[in-house]
Amino acid sequence: MPAIRLCTPIPGPKSEAIVARRDAAMPPGAARLTPIAVARAHGAQVTDVDGNVFLDLAGGIGTLAVGHTPDDVVAAIQAQAAELIHMCAIVATYEPLVALAERLNTLTPGDFRKRTLFMNSGAEALETCVHISRSYTKRQGIVVFDGSYHGRTNLTMAMTSKFNLFKKGFGPFAPEVYRFPFPNLYRRPADSTEESWIDWNLRLLDHAFMAIVEPSHVAAVVIEPVIGEGGFLPAPARWLRRLRELCTQHGILLVADEVQSGMGRTGTLFAIEHSGVVPDLVATAKSLGAGMPISAIIGRAEVMEAPHPGGLGGTYSGNPLACVAALKALDTLTDPAFLARATEIGVRLRARLLAIQARHPRLVGDVRGLGPMLAMELVKDTTTQEPWIEATQQVNAATLQRGVITIRAGLFSNCVRFLPPLTLSDAELDEAMDAVDASVDEVAARLGVAGA
């Protein structure tokens, strides 16, 4: 039986009514990417208030690696809610908080003593990484990269690259943030090979540490092992290793932003494991909590111990419900069979996307990502690589009409991103991708770029 079941126009009348209430009650700055109102969800299937069933390839923007409402997570939250909903870790200690910290200390890369701190969101975790790095190094500078997204607080907005969507009108931003080039392999010069482009960017790293900021001023380099919002760009392993060497040479902390790329999203628990690079601090969130709001900073013990008592924390940080959800999620996320299945999903999904690109080479400029964290970039011209935002919007609208939830990504908002729950079956994935296939065909025909 197919998973997708559509019984009304999309959106249906009940969705239209609830979304209209939202639009009247909430500001337009709080983005709304689809016109549906959701009643319930399980696994990869989402049911709206009109009874329509969709397949979810957005996964809460990377939050639902273990799927919607996994049974063991739901049971753990229900049991914990009957015992202790909140205490505040500043006031007292509770077992799930300690158990989760101990577990994360053993799971992150690096054969050294670690400590873990909990926050509520990815942005809070990244901002706290900066605080810890500055406290430990006694330096101020923070290096980030083109295309990066690190959050919406004032400091993390300064660190974020995508200006028009996230930063316009919100300045002034926090100082002492220095942006370096990122080796985007798709948008390299036409006469460069991938290897020569990486070579050039390796030289740019040395140059940037002279022309942009002097290494002795830098507390931390913050890097997404796979640039997320900026378009699912994997950082080349050779480039990451050189970054690690430079940080070690100059006493700079290397911070891996694994908020979107972590927790099994690329087929390993952390995306940076693919390169063999060991960071000093790791920030994780999203799928860590299986949908509950929790983030974590895990790092070298001597670094994490630098801030003074009382300098770190928050009222809801490490909430008991979120901690038990994360513990159960980690049972799944660390299962070798689950990670192997995630890799299989990535292979199957990439093959479908490459087939779409082969069928529509004038529209699909690139298919890229790592494991099952993938994106399809749409362009007006494959030679100039001019972004085609309208085409991306139309594809996402067309997939929804066919019962599949997809959303945008990319520095130019011209990528369709794929972050499916990693629990979906082959049948669900194929059904969803059949809808994506048909949607791209429809949009390509409408825009006059069908076929070669």
Task: Tell me what you see in this structure.
The chain starts with 12 loop residues before the first helix and ends in a 5-residue tail after the last helix. It is globular, with a radius of gyration of 22 Å. The protein has two domains: 13-56 and 336-447, Aspartate Aminotransferase, domain 1 (Alpha-Beta Complex); 72-333, Aspartate Aminotransferase, domain 2 (3-Layer(aba) Sandwich). The chain is of the alpha/beta class. Strands 4-12-11-10-7-5-6 form a seven-stranded mixed sheet, with helices on both faces. The chain contains 14 helices and 18 strands.
Estimated helix fraction: 25-40%
**Category by helix and strand content:** alpha/beta
Tally the structural domains. 2
Strand order of the largest sheet: 4-12-11-10-7-5-6
Radius of gyration: 22 Å
Task: Tell me, briefly, the overall form.
Answer: globular
Report the total helices: 14
Task: Write a brief structural summary.
39% of the residues lie in helices and 18% in strands.
Characteristics:
39% helix, 14 helices, single chain, 2 domains, Aspartate Aminotransferase, domain 2, 7-stranded mixed beta sheet
Write the layout of secondary structure elements.
Blueprint: H1 13-25, E1 38-42, E2 45-48, E3 53-56, H2 59-62, H3 71-83, H4 95-107, E4 114-119, H5 122-137, E5 141-145, H6 154-159, H7 163-166, E6 177-180, H8 194-211, E7 218-223, E8 226-227, E9 233-234, H9 237-250, E10 253-257, E11 281-284, E12 295-300, H10 301-304, H11 320-333, H12 336-359, E13 364-370, E14 373-381, E15 386-387, H13 389-401, E16 404-405, E17 407-409, E18 415-418, H14 426-447
Parallel strand pairs: 3-16, 5-6, 5-7, 7-10, 10-11
Antiparallel strand pairs: 1-2, 2-3, 4-12, 8-9, 11-12, 13-14, 14-15, 14-18, 17-18
Helix pairs in contact: 3-11, 4-11, 8-9, 12-14, 13-14
